[in-house]
């Protein structure tokens, strides 16, 4: 049985620049073979059972040689596997996709090209540099900068390129920059021609250096700018002053650690990245369903007898409906019970199941929930509270003081997530982390446990940002100096607060 190999352009760095078809191929694949330049976020779309194989190649550092990659793709294809071969940029723009396709064709393995957004266009665009511009640049060329300068005869037509093409984009050319500048000037390109280098284009760690042909080598050495970078030569470089947009974002240049559970972190991460932040996902917690006993099932089957059902988190909503469906029930089982949601995120989670909450407290503290419920639930009424295995007792205690019957359905528990421990420690030890965010008390305690006895010293030069006073109090009681407390107890509120802090 023969499989199928997709040769996919993974885009220039920003994972959201992958094509819809590229994403669909990743989701479908049995095997994913990915490159050094393919964004790691793309792997989040892989099936849980997909085999992930790193085949990255950097200058003088090859995890796998090209012939080995060719053999791997043929082998997996002949095993009947659906293979997603992720290549940075476009597979046919200096991506060696043609070579891999030829190897597959010779072996009789079906393949498809899935074009991608190519970095010679995308990286300049993210730097505010269009490769063509009316009345300024009507042509552009993409040129390899990786040619061996000791070759007797160059494969690059320097004489034609230097003067016949308006905009030149060199890929893999940082190491050969002196030769590139020398050849262009020697063949008629003016020494004062604008040049830009865009390093890690389209990513939040993007760097841009603007110079001229005669000074660019000196300026790059002075800035110690390293590969990977796109080199752009031409008058269009001057447009950056007017069209710069990506590195103007309020959080650009800031590195922010997100510690909330991966299942909840994507929206928060995206909001930070949309503001320009470099986000490190270092989940300190994860949630798991707990075993349902007969009493739990009895509460589920009798959910319609309650005056009000209270959801304290979006995760609680998900686990509640998973359990309800598992018992052969659906949202109709709630009957005429009023529904209370602590916070906008919890309310939104309920709307996914066709339910609009009747009660949303003014703020999202447990104490405020009790005040809001008092307007709708009277003495001798019954309330069902959906909570994790470990939770504060404020709501049930205060409601019982009001002579309201409370049953608690504990459907999930929060556990420590150690999968990103190494990445978190490494970022704090060797990188510069501007902010670490905590969205609950459990993210605080578990992060500190992951960091061990050096936790306070590792976080000494990082700003601590918390959602609400309860999370902040947990952090302060552990000896942390809390710099930011979001007055709105949502991830949106925390992002806004961080943006304001950066502006000060």
Descriptive labels:
504 residues, alpha/beta, Cobalt-precorrin-4 Transmethylase, domain 1, Methyltransferase, Cobalt-precorrin-4 Transmethylase, Domain 2, Rossmann fold, 4 domains, five-stranded parallel beta sheet, 19 helices, methyltransferase
Q: Topology of this structure?
A:
Elements: E1 4-9, H1 20-28, E2 31-34, E3 51-54, E4 57-58, E5 61-62, H2 66-78, E6 82-87, H3 97-107, E7 111-114, H4 119-126, E8 140-144, H5 158-164, E9 167-171, H6 177-186, E10 194-199, E11 207-212, H7 216-223, E12 229-233, H8 240-243, E13 255-258, H9 262-274, E14 278-281, E15 285-289, H10 294-301, E16 308-311, H11 314-326, E17 338-341, H12 344-351, H13 366-373, E18 382-388, H14 394-401, E19 405-416, H15 421-430, E20 435-438, H16 441-451, H17 455-458, E21 463-467, H18 468-477, E22 482-486, H19 491-503
Parallel strand pairs: 1-6, 1-7, 2-3, 2-6, 8-9, 13-14, 13-20, 16-17, 16-18, 18-19, 20-21, 21-22
Antiparallel strand pairs: 4-5, 9-12, 10-11, 10-12, 15-19
Helix pairs in contact: 2-3, 11-12, 13-14, 16-18
Describe this structure in words.
The strands form five sheets. Strands 3-2-6-1-7 form a five-stranded parallel sheet, sandwiched between helices. A five-stranded mixed sheet has the order 8-9-12-10-11, with helices on both faces. Strands 14-13-20-21-22 form a five-stranded parallel sheet, with helices on both faces. It is built from 19 helices and 22 strands. The protein is an alpha/beta fold and 504 residues long. Helices cover 35% and strands 22% of the residues. It folds into four domains: 4-117, Tetrapyrrole methylase, N-terminal domain (Cobalt-precorrin-4 Transmethylase, domain 1); 121-247, 2-Layer Sandwich (Methyltransferase, Cobalt-precorrin-4 Transmethylase, Domain 2); 255-284 and 417-503, 3-Layer(aba) Sandwich (Rossmann fold), CATH 3.40.50; 299-412, 3-Layer(aba) Sandwich (Rossmann fold), CATH 3.40.50.10090.
């Amino acid at each position: 049985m023969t499989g199928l190999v997709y040769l996919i352009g993974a885009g220039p760095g920003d994972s959201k620049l992958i094509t819809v078809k590229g994403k669909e191929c990743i989701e479908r694949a049995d095997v994913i073979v990915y490159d050094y330049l393919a964004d790691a976020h793309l792997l989040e779309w892989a099936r849980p059972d997909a085999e992930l194989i790193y085949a990255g190649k950097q200058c003088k550092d090859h995890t796998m040689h090209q012939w080995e990659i060719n053999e791997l793709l043929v082998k997996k294809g002949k095993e009947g596997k659906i293979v997603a071969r992720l290549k940075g940029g476009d597979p046919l723009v200096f991506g060696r996709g043609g070579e891999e396709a030829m190897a597959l064709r010779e072996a009789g393995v079906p393949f498809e090209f899935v074009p991608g957004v190519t970095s010679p266009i995308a990286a300049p665009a993210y730097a505010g540099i269009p490769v063509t511009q009316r009345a300024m640049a009507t042509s552009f060329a993409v040129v390899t900068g990786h040619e061996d300068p000791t070759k007797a005869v160059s494969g690059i037509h320097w004489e034609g390129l230097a003067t016949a093409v308006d905009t030149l984009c060199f890929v893999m050319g940082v190491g050969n920059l002196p030769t590139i500048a020398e050849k262009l000037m020697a063949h008629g390109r003016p020494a004062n021609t604008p040049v830009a280098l865009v390093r890690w284009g389209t990513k939040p760690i993007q760097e841009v250096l603007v110079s001229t042909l005669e000074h660019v080598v000196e300026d790059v050495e002075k800035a110690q700018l390293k590969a990977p970078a796109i080199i752009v030569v031409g008058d269009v470089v001057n447009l950056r002053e007017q069209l710069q947009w990506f590195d103007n974002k309020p959080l650009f240049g800031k590195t922010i650690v997100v510690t909330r559970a991966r299942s909840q972190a994507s929206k928060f991460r995206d909001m930070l990245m949309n503001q320009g932040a470099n986000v490190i996902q270092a989940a300190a917690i994860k949630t798991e369903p707990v075993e349902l006993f007969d009493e739990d099932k009895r509460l589920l089957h009798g959910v319609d007898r309650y005056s009000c059902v209270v959801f304290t988190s979006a995760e609680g909503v998900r686990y509640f409906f998973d359990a309800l469906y598992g018992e052969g029930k659906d949202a109709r089982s709630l009957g005429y019970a009023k529904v209370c949601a602590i916070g906008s995120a919890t309310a939104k989670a309920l709307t996914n199941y066709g339910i609009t909450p009747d009660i949303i407290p003014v703020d999202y503290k447990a104490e405020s929930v009790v005040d809001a419920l008092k307007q709708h639930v009277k003495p001798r009424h019954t309330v069902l509270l959906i909570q994790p295995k470990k939770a504060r007792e404020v709501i049930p205690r205060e409601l019982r003081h009001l002579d309201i019957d409370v049953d608690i359905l504990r459907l999930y528990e929060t556990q420590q997530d150690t999968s990103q421990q190494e990445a978190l420690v490494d970022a704090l030890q060797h990188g510069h982390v501007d902010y670490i965010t905590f969205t609950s008390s459990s993210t605080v305690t578990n992060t500190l446990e992951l960091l061990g006895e050096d936790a306070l010293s590792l976080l000494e030069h990082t700003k601590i940002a918390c959602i609400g006073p309860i999370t902040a109090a947990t952090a302060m009681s552990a000896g942390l100096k809390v710099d930011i407390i979001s007055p709105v107890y949502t991830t949106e509120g925390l992002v806004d607060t961080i943006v304001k802090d950066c502006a000060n």
